[in-house]
């Protein structure tokens, strides 16, 4: 079999299936094992126990899927035309949602296309071993993508390509074919450190190292408990994820808009007014977020995140009223609602004595009709 010819066909098929780029690498990631272990030992994975559960298998694709010889790494752009860059961040009464989550959940779409790619290969070579992955297994996708020539790992730990920035998803197809490999990407960020200095919570603790426990994306998505008070103000109006490190990256000036309509901003999020989103009951939340990555955090965590954003918004009687209506739903939610009401009250143009009195009332449990 002519594997060089097959590799070229695979890259053509990948583009036909909607991927903007594909590359091939071997499964040797031993150079990344010590960094992975150090990251885990430092506790930077927070409560994401699944990150440590599989040990070094994350850096050993051939142990994850025995017989794997190569990884086909693919990229799919997701920047929607309605992203409006950082406009939402400048509107404190509107919710900011990470761009990747504005449309449909990417996991199923990418996995289906990877499966089709695997089937195209099978039609060409006959039966062989393959398995697609899209954030669905303990695998170091960025080191693999860099090794496959798709880009380099930036100081914010995300993959970057000088031709398109970082607004793209990654996926992998593990195969047992001895395909020729691509050259690893040798790019770097140079002296630029905009992502590090712009992180609202200083979560980038070293070049390429993120302490998830401080990251707004982790706090709003993966963490389902009480958000530490030190991070609430820096969160601003970010209710699901955070794009700040990408928004300031100079390479993202060259980012391409997605051709995939599933990644366009859904209608329910076209005007993301905080009070309006907070007033959604659970049924409305589930209906409006059907097929969205946001749905998996659940209605209660949605309200928790929104309450922090409402606390950070300019004073509004409507905000205080909406917050009060949700008191008593859960202890964790009450913690954030009371904090938000307190933040709102401190903006009322009255004497400090009256503010202190109002805050004491909140701390004791503000009556809904107060």
Automatic annotation (TrEMBL):
GO CC terms in record: cytoplasm
A Gene Ontology BP annotation from the UniProt entry: tRNA queuosine(34) biosynthetic process
One function term, GO molecular function aspect: metal ion binding
Binding annotation for cob(II)alamin: 58, 135, 153, 159, 170, 217, 242-243
Keyword RNA-binding appears in the UniProt entry: no
InterPro entries according to UniProt: 4Fe4S_Fe-S-bd, 4Fe4S_Fe_S_CS, QueG, QueG_DUF1730
Cofactor requirements of the protein: cob(II)alamin; [4Fe-4S] cluster
Enzyme class: oxidoreductase
Main location, first listed in the record: cytoplasm
Record has Chaperone as a keyword: no
Positions that bind [4Fe-4S] cluster 2: 199, 215, 242, 245
HAMAP family in UniProt: QueG (MF_00916)
Subunit structure: Monomer.
Entry protein name: Epoxyqueuosine reductase
Organism taxonomic ancestry: Bacteria, Pseudomonadati, Pseudomonadota, Gammaproteobacteria, Vibrionales
């Amino acid at each position: 079999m002519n594997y060089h010819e097959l590799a070229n066909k695979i890259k053509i098929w990948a583009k036909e299936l909607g991927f903007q780029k594909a590359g091939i690498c071997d499964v040797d990631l031993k150079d990344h094992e010590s960094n992975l272990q150090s990251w885990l030992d430092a506790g930077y994975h927070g409560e994401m126990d699944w990150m440590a559960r599989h040990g070094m298998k994350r850096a050993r694709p051939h142990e994850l899927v025995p017989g794997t010889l190569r990884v086909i790494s693919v990229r799919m752009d997701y920047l929607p035309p309605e992203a409006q860059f950082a406009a939402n961040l400048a509107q404190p009464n509107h919710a900011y949602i990470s761009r990747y989550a504005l449309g449909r959940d990417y996991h199923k779409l990418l996995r289906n296309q990877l499966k089709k790619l695997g089937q195209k290969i099978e039609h060409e070579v006959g039966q062989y071993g393959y398995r697609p992955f899209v954030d669905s297994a303990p695998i170091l996708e960025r080191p693999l993508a860099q090794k496959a020539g798709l880009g380099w790992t930036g100081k914010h730990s995300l993959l970057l390509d000088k031709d398109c920035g970082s607004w793209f998803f990654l996926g992998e197809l593990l195969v047992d074919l001895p395909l020729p490999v691509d050259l690893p990407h040798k790019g770097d960020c140079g002296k630029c450190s905009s992502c590090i200095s712009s992180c609202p919570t200083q979560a980038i603790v070293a070049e390429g190292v993120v302490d998830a426990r401080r990251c707004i994306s982790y706090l709003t998505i993966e963490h389902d408990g009480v958000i530490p008070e030190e991070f609430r103000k820096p969160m601003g109006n970010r209710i699901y994820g955070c794009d700040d490190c990408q928004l300031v990256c100079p390479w993202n000036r060259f980012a391409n808009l997605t051709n995939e309509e599933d990644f366009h901003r859904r209608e329910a999020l076209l005007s993301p007014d905080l009070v309006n989103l907070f007033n959604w009951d659970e049924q409305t939340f589930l209906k409006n977020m059907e097929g969205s990555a946001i749905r998996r955090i659940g209605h209660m965590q949605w309200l928790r995140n929104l309450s922090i954003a409402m606390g950070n918004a300019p004073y509004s009687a409507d905000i205080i009223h909406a917050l009060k209506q949700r008191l008593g739903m859960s202890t964790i939610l009450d913690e954030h609602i009371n904090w938000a009401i307190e933040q709102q009250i401190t903006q009322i143009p009255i004497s400090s004595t009256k503010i202190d009195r109002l805050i004491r009332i909140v701390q004791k449990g503000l009556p809904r009709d107060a």
